[in-house]
Write a structure and sequence with these properties.
By secondary structure, the chain is mainly β. It has no helices and ten strands. It has one domain (2-141).
Length: 142
Amino acid sequence: MSMIGDAHIHIDYSSPKVRGRIIFGGLLPFNEVWQSGAHMATSIETNKKLMINNQILDEGKYAIFTIPSKKNWTFIINKNWQQHGKDDYNPKDDVIRFIVKPINLDNLVEELRYEVKKTENKKGEINLIWERVKISFPFTII
């Protein structure tokens, strides 16, 4: 759990490993919904409202999904956080959806990880990092 200002932000995920495989565009096809972790859908929980990409995320617990592609990723926050993988994913349950440009990394990151980092008193960023890709976006506590 990360504490930024007076907000508790927790991302719960299973962390798959690369194990010599091509992940994005291989094991995980481009342009398909991914639960952004292994097994159960990754979840994010916050006790304060957040502003993400000019959209308000109310306090609560949500699922995180992404749609990887070569040039842009779609980042999705979905109200149905108790899902196995993407089996029950329904875009009608999306509360936030936006495009983010992936950052290509020089070094291989073997194990998927998420980071919630403070950038200012009531501001931070969320990072998804795996294989040779980093997805990063800012948020503000409101």
